[in-house]
Amino acid sequence: MVTGRQKTIALAILAAGVVLFYLLMPGDADRVKGQFEFLADNITKSAGENQLIGAANSKRIRSAFMETVTIDAPAYDYVRDLPAAELPALVLTARKPYMELALDFYDFTIEFPQEDQASVRVTARLRGRLPSGEAVEDIQELNCRLLLFEDRWRFAVIEFVAVLEQ
Question: Would residue 5 count as lying in a domain?
């Protein structure tokens, strides 16, 4: 027979489990950051990387985007609505000249103007090494809009912020 004490202990364990679930479950901001980490991990190229691994990583990137993503780079007078199906080929082409390539994101500012929309201002740092040994580095400020679609945050707009040069 279940005693009152056993019921109290069971309720306490259940309450602790619920609290832990909500504390450990990633919030929307963490899930949005996770998409940037996913993107960085799949764009990164290590020295001697197998071409099949590179192709698989490039193909995987497509899942982080809406069916169409808007790329806006005002400094280059470039705006394009790009079908997500074209992303793997573009990523492979962009990675090809490099022996090594690393992409990092930092300085996140994340806002949620609507329940299913995230606006992110982030700094992107791309570092690469060409076959000649020359190091390449590019740092860009980005404004991104992600939409919650099928319970996953996906990139809808990536805007390169024009930074004033001194």
Answer: no
Q: Is 71 exposed, middle or buried (0-12, 13-18, 19+ CB in 10 A)?
A: middle
For residues 7 and 18, the model is more confident at: 7
Average pLDDT, integer, range 41-53: 87
Listed in sequence order, the DSSP H helices in the chain are 4-24, 28-43, 51-61, 87-95
What pLDDT digit, counting tens, does each position of 141-163 carry? 999 999 999 999 999 999 999 76
Chain centre to alpha carbon of residue 77? 24
Distance from C-alpha of 91 to C-alpha of 43, rounded to nearest angstrom: 7
- Does the model's pTM come out above 0.85? no
Spatial separation of the C-alpha atoms in residues 48 and 71, rounded to whole Å: 30
**Strand 135-149 and strand 152-160: pairing?**
antiparallel
Q: What is the DSSP letter of 99?
A: S
Locus of tokens 């997500």 = 84
Span 109-132, pLDDT tens digits: 999 999 999 999 999 999 999 999
Rg (Cα) of the chain, in Å, rounded? 21
Residue 134 counted as domain residue: yes
CATH number at residue 86: 3.10.450.50
